[in-house]
Amino acid sequence: MATKKKKGGAKKGGRKSAKKSSRKTAKRGGAKRKPNPAFMRPMQIDAALGAVVGNSAMPRTEVTKKLWQYIKRNGLQDQKERRMINADDKLRAVFGGKGKVSMFEMTKLVNKHIK
User: What are the phi and psi torsion angles at 26 (to 5°)?
Assistant: First the structure.
């Protein structure tokens, strides 16, 4: 009676080695990434968004930071569904009259107020 021989090979879903991550750090040399200059360029903010984050020109990254500070300070993040933002009167003007938007939709709506 002949026995069947199993073929060897790698298992699916096996552990991945840590070599990959060590190659990335060696490639960069441990240096920090440079920020994209397009994100750091000061942008002009319209009046509706200016009422929330301030009227001075600032980079997109700073607009996002100040917007989240406003949301956290006023408790506008939905308690049950954390990715939803409940708009107050100031934010409703920025969100185009919507009372509730998702975080991802929020960035799209805020970009309409930045030039």
Answer: -70, -35
CA 60 to chain centre: 12
15-31 per-position pLDDT tens digit: 655 555 555 555 656 78
Whether 63 contacts 53, CB under 8 Å? yes
| pTM given for the model | 0.68
Sign of the CA dihedral running 34, 112, 78, 87: positive
Share of the chain above pLDDT 70, in %: 74
